[in-house]
Amino acid sequence: MPDRPSAVVTPSVEVDGLDRADLSPWFNPFLPHFVRETERCGGEVRVLREDGSVAGLLISDPVERVATVFSRSRPTAEAAVRGRGPYGMYSDFSFDPTADPFDIFRTTLDDPRPSPRFRHALRPFTGEDVPAVVELIREVYGVVNESWFVGLPSGSEAGFVAEVEGRVAGVGWVTRIGTHARLHSLTVRVPYRRRGLGTDLLLARLLWAEQAGAREVLSEIAEDNVGSQAVAVRGGMRRVGRIYFHRPL
Question: Total domain count for the chain?
Fold first, then answer.
């Protein structure tokens, strides 16, 4: 990645203080977790600097060839995005009219909620589910870094699996860091969509987050994923912001 005076990329990983860093309007509480998970899965972590001060964080996955830059500085984020090469990259800023927008949805869990009513039987993800879940994700998305599943579930990561007709039809994940939670990686097989699986998996993860002590939950959903956005709204989440995915060069 080319260096610029306003956005110097250093190869050293300096994660001390990331729990106090202000690099994202949405993901600040999750930054140390993202660093640990990236390193655990064989990815790369870089600290971005402006005038000697930490101005951003760049994490990348060489298997899925996807990266994310966290920075409040537009020049810092732009240097990362412009140098992304064969990686797709997420950023709070858009530097390309073809960038794909992802809306940020958020809800709070302070108020009591009615007990959810599930249409399908769900169960917590276990290590025995890895082969079937990997097959599902590969079928839908084409590539998956299997090392991510090693050691899951954990104290901060939980997943829920939906089975229909004897096969894994959907899966969704939730990360909790303190009082913050993030819903991510919702995947439903095409033949089983529009049956309420997405809603059930959303409600299960919200319930888990609440019972685990989370008070604020967010999720990023592609703008063109109308179905998942509708599910989020039905679950009490509202659109509060946007990030962008820049496709590989």
Answer: 2
β partners of residue 67 = 60, 89
The reply to whether 3 falls in a domain is: no
Alpha helix ranges (H) inside 155-245? 197-211, 226-234
- 125 and 194 within one domain: yes
**Residue 187 in tokens:** 């995947």
CB 7 within 8 A of CB 75: yes
pTM of the model: 0.91
Report helix, strand or coil for 243: strand
* 72 and 156 inside one domain: no
Domain that holds residue 215: 106-241
Q: How far is CA 90 from the centre of its chain?
A: 10
User: pLDDT tens digit string along 187-231?
Assistant: 999 999 999 999 999 999 999 999 999 999 999 999 999 999 999
Q: Are 180 and 75 in contact (CB under 8 A)?
A: no
